Structure formats: structure tokens, C-alpha cells
Amino acid sequence: MAKLLKIQTSIFQNDGQSSLLAEQFASDWQARNPGGQVASRDLTAEPVPHLDLARFQSFITPEAERSAEQKAVVSYSDALIEEIVEADVLVLGIPMYNFSVPSTLRAYFDHIARAGVTFQYTPEGPEGLLKGKKAVVFITRGSHYGEDHSQTAFVRQFLGFIGITDVEIVHAEGLAVGDEAREKALGAARKRISQLV
Fold this sequence. Notes:
Order of helices and strands: EHEHHEHEEEHEH
Number of domains: 1
CATH class: Alpha Beta
Number of helices: 6
CATH superfamily: Flavodoxin domain
CATH architecture: 3-Layer(aba) Sandwich
């Protein structure tokens, strides 16, 4: 059974433009995969704690030596990772905040990137272990920054780092420029959704 994991990060939650685009993709995907499952994670409604020394040490402490608190931290991270492991398709809705991704997404990524779990170090460099998945990323921005912006590069690099290299990024830019620019950008993004699904 095919499974899609939808991750939204907008502070406006379901009303954010990136969330709306991700939801449209998920809905269209569900319509074309009636036997499939859609799981959702809202990082604003349920923010992941920021990585601190105690959490990092929990990840690197050998399993047999972990305290009860450390086991709880690792179990939480394992559950986040398992959602991705079970998914065939990841859909991310990501607005631009201060030229980067929302801090909630960065905190989430910090709990996903685990050596020996989602990636491993090799003599040739790091190797992602979550292979064979597709990611569709909707990035929304108030102005125009282009597809080669560092925000886009970061998202693509992180997904590749954990093994997800089949990545489609859809930008909707100029959303704060004016009504005409916003509708044009969102219309183009919706058209791209129909092509991708």
C-alpha cells in the first residue's frame, strides 16, 4: 500500500500558502491512489524541540548505557524517522522566513539526521540510508529569489544527505508583491501539481 507523508511548517498552519499547496498535492495524490494512505505532521501545532547537548548525547550514547530520559529522546526521534521510512512520497510545505526555512523544520531535520540510522559515513563521504523515496517540496516566498537560493539548496542538500535524491521543488514566489503576482504564482504551482500527480 502506497503511503504519503505530508509535512507542513507554516506558522499559519492549514491556512498558509505552502500548507495549502501541500494539501492540494496530497488530496490529488489520494484521489489517484484510493488505496493509499496519507499521514500528516504539522510542525507548528506539534513543534519538535530544538537540539541541545542533552538530546545530542542521547543519540550518541550506546543503547545499553542510555538513561530513561535518553531512551525517551531517542524513541521520539525514532518515531519521526519511522514516519519517513514508511512513506513512499514525502510532501513538504515550506515558507521562507528571514531567507531560510522555518526554525521548526530545522529542529525536525536535526532529529532526523542520525548517524547509523538515516545516514552513514563512508571513505567516499556520507551516504544516505533512506533511499527509494520521492519528495515534492512547495516553497512559498513573499518576493522573488529564484530557484538557486540558499534556502532551496539547503532543503535539497539535506534530503540528499539522508538518501532522498528524487526531489521535485515547486516555487511560488512574489506572494506579497500584489494580488496579480500572487495569483499568477499560485496558479502556476497548482498547474505543476496536476502535472506531478
